[in-house]
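New to this. Please check this protein:
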Amino acid sequence: MKILSSNYQDSSIWRFFSSVRLAVFLLITLAITSIVGTVIPQGETLQFYLENFGPNFFRIIKTLHLYDTYHSWWYLTLLGLFSINLIICTLRRLPFTLKLCSRDSLSLDSERLLKMPFKRDWEIKKELDNDLTQSIISAFKKVAGKSLEREGVDGGRLFLAERGKWSYWGVYALHGSILIIFIGALVGLFLGFKGSVMLPEGETIDYIVNRQTGKRISLGFSVRCNSFSIAFYDNGAPKEYRSDLTVLNDDKEVFHKSIVVNDPMKYKGITFYQASYRAIPEVTVRVSNSDKIHRSLTISAFQKTIWPEEQLSFGLIQYQPNVHGRPAAQIWIADHEGRSGNLWLLEGREREFGQAGNLYKMSLSSAKQRYLTGLQVKKDPGVWIVWLGCAVLIAGFSVVFWVPHRRLWLWIGRRKGRTLVILSGQTNKNKLQLEKDIKKIEEALNSSLGVGQ
């Protein structure tokens, strides 16, 4: 089994994916491509890139999917290769870590303790009685903390105070956190969505539109814009715009919030951001048929208004706020058979038109400005997985950089006909603190042994 494992790890594929050079190359490549994805606007229509970058660079953007860099096949491939590299590097390091954690630190003899870089030793001419021995042990434990003991080590007693043995797993927390973040991102990519909607005041909608594909995405509930307000600076620039939204489920109001930029509404894992607004004209016209039946109709831009009794449809084509001192509007008119036409109306002046063999009169009663609130809508079920990965990442960094594996030994016994007390220590980081601790123990042992400073 060991031979098969060794042969597998010695294979060229294993060496390639466990290579540090591959990891560095992938990290640099991901960093560069992320910069490209930041410089080039993401999520715009293809026409936007053609108009702003020209036909030559547009072909590159379209071929490499640079308009959606972070969801492109090659970027996901890079992330996949980096994940494989990370996993294999982790597996390759695992046996060494297990060996470090399972090693017996109480099996060292006095010779090895004397060869350590941090050591102190005392030679005592007389035999140590029980009280003096206990005094030495107590002085060691007071600074070193809880310790293990083993009798008969190289003819003496060996004490070990060990801290941070588990810190070797910090690097695995780092590796795991990156994989957790990747998993969270993939969950958001495949199970979440992003879209937008322009919602007029007073209107209700139960879907949003994917900006790139133009496809509708059902919300599973409805959202109504009760009102929209905007405040301006003295120079006319927008200061704040606010949308008053209500969530309806089966025509019942279940949630309400007034949102502004950076203060979104969240409902059932879907977040609604205040992103933009648009002002559109809205006119009220008065229409009468040959039987002198009158009807007042409100017509907004981008919407169709119907007079059901006459089977007529109306739409607003153009609006001019000031024509000879009065508002004017160009109205589109169509009947149930699809025949259509248009005419201009000036406020206060009546116009006649014929449709489907009938004669009608129409006049422009009033006009005003109506707002549409622009909402960016996002669902990302993987966001909590990403936050978990970030928390593990911070914890892993803290362990790797600030938690040392520190070992302190105290050996008491006879060596070459002499009674020796050996103090030694070893750490993989924060050596200054180890020196301070050894100095404190040294001073305490000098006091117990009656040795001058």
The chain is about 35% helix and 40% strand.
